[in-house]
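User:
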Amino acid sequence: MSIGSELTAARERADMTIEQLSAATRIRTGLLVAMEADDFSRCGGNFYARGHIRSIARVVKADPAPLIASFDAEQAVEEEKSRREERAAVKGPTLHPARPRWAVVVGAILVSLMGWGMVRLFTLPNDIEANASKTATTTATVTTPTPKPTPKPSASPTRTATKKPPVLKTELVLTAKGDGTYLTVRDRKNKRLFQGHLGPGIAQSVTSAGDIRISVGNPANLIVTLNGKRINTKLYRFYAHANGTLSKSPSS
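Assistant: Predicted structure:
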C-alpha cells in the first residue's frame, strides 16, 4: 500500500471528508488530494511533507511513525533510481572486438589452391621432356583440384508473431461546476495525464487505452462524461472503464 493510499484509508476510517480534514489541519484541499494521490511535490520539500503527514495523523488519530517511515522509504528508492539513471547517462558506449570474416578467409584458401594447380600444370611437361631419353615414354595426368563450393547457411525457421488483442480506448470528459475542484488523472500504467485545479465551467478531455484512474477533491462540483454518456458519481477516487462504467478505486 502506498503512502497516499494509507492517508486515504486513515481519513476514511475517521469518517472525514477532504474539506473537514482541511479545516482541522489548515492544509489546502488541493494539497490534501495531491498527497493522497502520492504527489508530494507541492509540499515544498520532504521536511514540510513530513510535517503535513504528522498533522494529518494527529487529526485522524493514526500513528504517524509508520507513515513517516513509508514516506522516507519511498523517497530513498526515488533518489537511488535517479542516481542510477545519471550513472547510465555518463557511461560511454561499449566497443566490441571485430570478428574475422570467414567468407574472406575461405576465398583466400581457394585462390591459393587454384594458383598451385596452375603452376603444376605448366611446369610438369618440361620435367617429362628432360627425362624422355632415359626412360620410356610415360603418360602423366595432372589433376587440378576442383574448389569446393562454400556452404550456404541454412535459413532459420520463420517465427510467427502472436498478436495481442487491442486495448479498448476510454474517452473521458471532466467538467467543473460550482467553485470547481482539484483533479488528478492517471492511465492504466499509473502515468499522470492531468493534475491541477479545474475552474468552474472548464472541461478537461482525456483519452487513453484501458482504464483511467481519477482522484477528485469535491465530487459534487464535477460532471463526468464517459464515452459520450453523462454519469453521476459521489466517489472521491474511482476508475473509468472502456465499457462505459465507473468503479470505486480500492484504498490499497
